[in-house]
Amino acid sequence: MRLGSLELGGRCRVMGILNVTPDSFYDGGHYNAAAVARGREMAANGAEIIDVGGESTRPGAPPVPEAEERERVVPVITALAAELEIPISIDSRKPAVARAAVEAGAVLVNDVGGLRDPEMVATVAELGVPAVVMHMQGTPETMQRDPDYNEVVTDVKAWLAERVATAEAAGIARDQLIVDPGIGFGKTLEHNLTLMARLGEFRGIAGGVLLGASRKSWLKMLVGAKPEQRLPGSLAGAVAGALAGADIVRVHDVTATRQAIEVANALREFK
Length: 271
Known about the structure:
alpha/beta, two-stranded antiparallel sheet
């Protein structure tokens, strides 16, 4: 699979998170006024993809109106796509936002809604771009109230496989889809750790696997760390994911993660 000039497969790639929101759980509001500068910094520090999002999906987060989300992300994507050689991704559940972002220069749609919206499926198919299909039990407003599975890996795999099949039927090639088990999206600590430990089982469902575990609440549950204290745990999660076969790790801390992933990639070569 290609994302612009980037070839996926073989090495784990680092995706930098660029939240253009006032209320993201970790960096919301911190980079809003200088999002483009932050994107440049991420690229200089080794990000291989930049994922731009204009709506927080933290537990309990309310939805953002479509027009507001579009106004947040499109100028940033336009500027970064014109300046940087690395691919830009749009993190959105809204088809109109995804369309506007791709028209502005994004080459990947990262849908935390998991392509559940038929209009999003049709939009991605029409645009002809790759997409990330993420598993979420419920919605950001409800997902952490009482997560429950018969067997979390089996259930999440089956859900993702069904979404991939639906996307294929709509004209999106399987090898243009990336699956994400959705760490922290409708999961307990045990669910999250089980999914991360068995991440390799998600390979083969689609063209790639993405892990997004950076600074999330599983680390608070595990070691009691606040978001600003979760870099060591996030690095451990990223390396574990890379060694398990992740094609992309989605992270807040590009410099440190890139170094850690280089070590993981070197070890992968000796397996």
